[in-house]
Structures are given as structure tokens and as C-alpha cells.
Amino acid sequence: MFFSEILKEYDWDRMGDEIHAKTGLDVERALTKAQSPGEEIDLEDFKALVSPAADKPGYLEAMAGLSRQATQRKFGKTIQFYIPLYLSNECSNHCIYCGFNHENKFARVTLDDEQIMEECAVLKKMGYEHILLLTGESPGKAGIDYLEHAMQLISPHFAQISLEVQPMDTPQYERLRKSGLHAVYVYQETYNRNTYGDYHPAGMKRDYAWRLDSQDRLGLANVNKIGIGALLGLEDWRTEAFCMAMHLKHLQKNYWRSKYCVSFPRMRPHEGEGFQARHMLDDRELAQMIWAFRLLDDEVEMSLTTRESPDFRNHMVSLGITSISAGSQTDPGGYAHPDTETAQFEINDDRSPAEMKKMIEEQGYEVVWKDWDKVYDAR
Predict the structure, then answer these.
(1) What pLDDT, in 10s, does the model give residues 38-76?
(2) Ramachandran region of residue 136, left (φ > 0), alpha (ψ -120 to 50) or beta?
(3) What CA–CA distance (Å, rounded) separates 196 from 313?
């Protein structure tokens, strides 16, 4: 059974009520289990850890400390570097929160071979080995044939290629694996089925179940790593977090050969009519969410992008995050020829990879530019 069918059995408002009903005793019980060898916290414990009851200095400090210990135990004192490469800003969707919304009037660009290699040359000079390819959702302009060709073009130059593009079917994911695909990230934006259509009034992305079941199709295709997440700010973050946790556990149970990554993108300013997020969470709440996921699963990778402030990213390096981007541009061709008018959103941390590397090393951590080799893709 795919996850969209499972989630039908859960009522959004009821999940929120159950999270808000958790008490300090529930939080303490979860923290005790997290500290006890051989014990694992379950989804009920997770509800307590993301609840308002856990948002107290003593509990948050305990969560932060346990998150640091668990992360260092499994990942050591390392942070993986990756960088996004936007191939196209063409999009057929009308997502009201996104700069790529097809109704926004700005130049649409899809990189050709020469432009792609120009971008790659800049990224190689920065030192990157892990590259994340992104597009809007426009199969006619940047569909499977275009992506496969781009990956074949790029593959000889980078150790890892990941994708964040429109959802595909299992045979298409299997096809891209043969061209060097390592990981795919698909963010549901919101797990709230009741309001999902409000944010996606037109376009392919309006199909809630097709998007939500992307990770199941990725699992069937035996993709090495699968990423999940929600766009934080659209709906109540605590309920989004619980749905993400359920989704993660479902995937791990059914597609155990794949690795998993959780991301925490918060809303950022973008091109077009001003969309006002109604459920923004602050830094303290985002930290609580990250730590809760680390206590739920000490092996899952967790990523933090340049959407976040320098100060927040500095603090989270040692508190649970395992991968981070630096020097990012969110527009096609933006590394060789920066043009913020065609960007998907405004970044919040514009430090260079060298500056980020220095900050990380000053905290006693090591930057990992490559943690995978294509020889392992033989499976």
C-alpha cells in the first residue's frame, strides 16, 4: 500500500489536537527512552517531542544534547557539502508560494549543453563533487529526455548526481539510475490534503496522491537515496512533522535498501505576487523539529539549505544536521551569470563554500565533498 492510502486514515485536525494534548510527562518519557540503550522512541513519543509541551528550555537543551550525541555516534564530526544546479525555470504549475509560478512574468530559461558545462566548470572550481539538479515542472521543456541527457553530460565530472524535479513513474526513475542518478528529493509542500489544492490551483502538481507517492515509486526503482520534506510555513509545522515522520517510517519499512534524507525548507521571499505564509515557525521551533527527527532516527540524513540564516546554520552544524549547501544560486545559469530576477527564491546565507568550510572546521568538524562513488551503483 502506498503512503497516500495510509494517510487517508488520519484526520489532519485530530493529529494536531493529539500533538497539542501531550504533556511534560510525555516529553520526559520520550527523553528517557532516547537516553536508554536498546530503547527506541516511537511515533507517539515523536508527537511529544514536537509538541508545545516540549518547547521549554530544559527539554530543548536535553533534546539538543541528545541530538548531538546521536549524530556524532553515527556520522562522526562530518558535514557533507552539496550544491544545487538549476537547469530550468520553466514551469507549468501555478503554485501560489513559488517564484517559478507559470503566471509570473520573467524570462524563462532552460540551459543548453554549453551553458550546463559552463555552470559545471564554476562548481568544480568551488570544489564540489555532489551536485543537485533542479528544474521547474515542465516535461515539455525539461522532461525525462532532457534530464537523462543532462545527467550523461554532467556525470563524468561529479561523484554524485541528485535530482529535485517533477515526480516520475518507476520506469523513468530506473532509466535515470542507469545514467548515474544517486538520489531524488520530492517535497510534498504540505501533507494537509484538505488545503493542498488551495496552494496548487492548476498544473500537474495539483495531483496530491501522485506527488505523495513519488517516494514509493522511487523505492520500487531501488534509488540509492530518497528525500522527503514539507515547505514549512504553509500549514502547522507540528502536524507536518508528524506526517513526515510517518512517511519516513513507512518508506524505511517497505524499501529498506534505500537510504533516506529529511529536509526542512522554510518559506522565503520570491518573485511574483506576495504570498504571506500563515504558519511560519521561528528558529527555536525549527530546531525543536530537527532534534525530534534525530531522536526518532539516528541514521537518517538531515539537510539544511541557504534558506536559513548564517547564525542558525552555524549553530545547527553540531546539533544534528549532516549535509549543507553553500554558495548557492537559485536561477538557471546563476553561477556563471548571476541574475536574481529569474531566481526561485531569495537565499538567506550567501557565504562562499570556503567561508562555510572555515566555519565548520573551527567547530572541530570536517567537510566531506564526496561520500559516494559510482562503483557502488552496480547494485
Answers:
(1) 899 999 999 999 999 999 999 999 999 999 999 999 999
(2) beta
(3) 29
